[in-house]
Write a structure and sequence with these properties.
Blueprint lengths: L4 H12 L3 H10 L6 H8 L12 H16 L15 H11 L4 H10 L6 H6 L14 H16 L10
Helix pairs in contact: 1-8, 2-4, 4-5, 6-8
Length: 163
Amino acid sequence: MDITNNDVLRRLRYAFDYDDSTMIAIFGKADCVVSRKAVSAWLKKDKDPEQEPCSDSQLATFLNGLIIKLRGKKEGPQPQPENLLTNNIILRKLKIALNLQAEDMLVILKLSGLVLSKHELSAFFRRSGTAHFRQCKDQALRNFLNGLRLKYRGLGDVDPEKV
């Protein structure tokens, strides 16, 4: 099953325990006004007839807002949201927003059961078309989002020192 922009938005909301107001404020950080109704429609379950698809540019706007919320606004013109998002871009934006180093990302992935080498991870951040570029598949992104949930919402029986 493909991971959708709605899945990513729902998983991030849950991982960081954001309410509707916080979600709206994050969009606002990227100079985008969204209604509570729109956010609610994006967050509905896949089988809900009231669910609205979250576009690539809407998710990119949210991720840009998340970067600003967690890292602060940078000088100069703000980045424009991408019209076409890939899992690699989503992963890069989350890495920036959370100020993660490669080691941090590897631990988060390992929390969800995915073990990658530093070289495999760095291939996700290379420019498309270069020799060592690797496409981030849905399962890797899903594992990363699940690892974020485990890290920020609680680990259950997992001892983080043993990861």
